[in-house]
Amino acid sequence: MGEFDLIRTFFTRPVRRAALGVGDDCALLAPTPGMQLAVSSDMLVEGRHFFADVDPLRLGHKALAVNLSDLAACGARPLAFTLALALPRADTAWVGAFADGLLALADAHECELIGGDTTQGPLNICITVFGEVPAGQALLRSGARAGDDIYVSGSLGDARLALEALQGHLTLPPATLAAARLRLEMPTPRVALGQALRGIASSALDVSDGLLGDLGHILAQSRVGACIDTRLTSPLLAAGASLQKPLAPGHGHLGGQRATRNEQARGQELLAPGRPKPADGPLGGQRATRNEQAWGQELIRHCTLAGGDDYELCFTAAPELRAQVAAAARHSDTPVTRIGSVQAQAGLRLLGAQGQELVSRYASFDHFSV
Ligand code: ADP
Ligand code: MG
């Protein structure tokens, strides 16, 4: 199948809201008067953002989901998107499944595919989304004020946990892995919540690179600091319930009765910036040593605080608006958790399991230094 047949078969659909869709040199959008256009692009590259053998339907979903997540973070309503696609070959079964995943999510959000580009090359997917937001009402990263509450939507860390398991760094019970993998491969953009937070949230962004790293952008652009309570963030790992089961004895390095210095160091490494190196023991055994419990706690912290690929919203709001935040969460059917507060003092402080201030290795987490 040639380029134009591919486009016609899989990516050409009648448009309802756009003035002109696929087939001409440009698509035409007719923005509603009084609205601003919100525009964002995200690229997914094989090997960097997804495994070569990932289910194409899930990949199609994710390619659009990560873009819709940016619109959500701004409080914008999705309108349309373009798709620039490099394909190694015209594999119609693969492209068909990819288009199914992509367009199902597009339909769910009434976001129309209006154009793009198709070329032969290493698999690469670049989507640009267009949304609209009432003029002056977009949620920005720069509006957080000292005293504001800090919230995050949904769950955190499961995508990272799945990634670690798929890379062979740890073993998860099959059902736990399947659920976590769904979070990695089919994230849920919080589009309704983002719009519901207009006029309520003082700042917002979507968590794509890990909560603390991304929250750091809000803090920098708002010129404030923050305190995050890990007693509130650790339970946000949906897989946490299975992880808290003790590690199986005798399997991995942390499986024995007593940890060697090396094993303790391994646990410590989870705290350090960069890739975690969890032990290889399966989770879910009979009894855990103190070290194993500490290791589990560090793994949970690492995944929730610095995991990446969550596509949840992190936002701030004045404490007087707690009822409004709760109403926005209810109306958008999206769980929201208050995890800390904005402070005038610069920097990011973390509270540990006993409410003590953690020596804040996470807080200095910098994705550009990894
Ligand atoms: P041009 O040569 O003018 O850039 P193309 O021949 O590349 O146009 O594309 C023809 C039409 O198909 C255009 O309307 C373009 O937007 C659309 N198109 C190309 N690739 C895709 C794609 N992957 N998804 C949706 N529309 C596409
Ligand atoms: Mg042209």
Summary keywords:
single chain; 370 residues; alpha+beta; four-stranded mixed β-sheet; 20% strand; globular; disordered C terminus; binds adenosine-5'-diphosphate; binds magnesium ion
Written account of the structure:
- There is one protein chain.
- With 370 residues, this protein is an alpha+beta fold.
- 35% of the residues lie in helices and 20% in strands.
- The strands form two sheets. The chain has a six-stranded mixed sheet, sandwiched between helices. The chain has a four-stranded mixed sheet with strand order 1-4-2-3.
- Strand 2, helix 3 and strand 3 form a beta-alpha-beta unit.
- The radius of gyration is 22 Å and the shape is globular.
- The site of adenosine-5'-diphosphate (ADP) has 13 residues, from helix 1, strand 2 and strand 3.
Short summary:
By secondary structure, this protein is of the alpha+beta class.
Count the E strands: 10
Poorly predicted regions = 247-282, 363-370
Largest sheet, spatial ordering of strands? 6-8-5-9-7-10
Hetero ligands: adenosine-5'-diphosphate, magnesium ion
Give the terminus-to-terminus CA distance.
Answer: 42 Å
Mean pLDDT: 87
Order of helices and strands: HEHEHEEEHHHEHEHHHHEHEE
Structural class: alpha+beta
**Considering DSSP H and I runs of 4 or more, what fraction of the residues is helical?**
25-40%
Rg over CA atoms, rounded to whole Å, is 22 Å
Q: Count the DSSP helices.
A: 12
Strand content: 15-25%
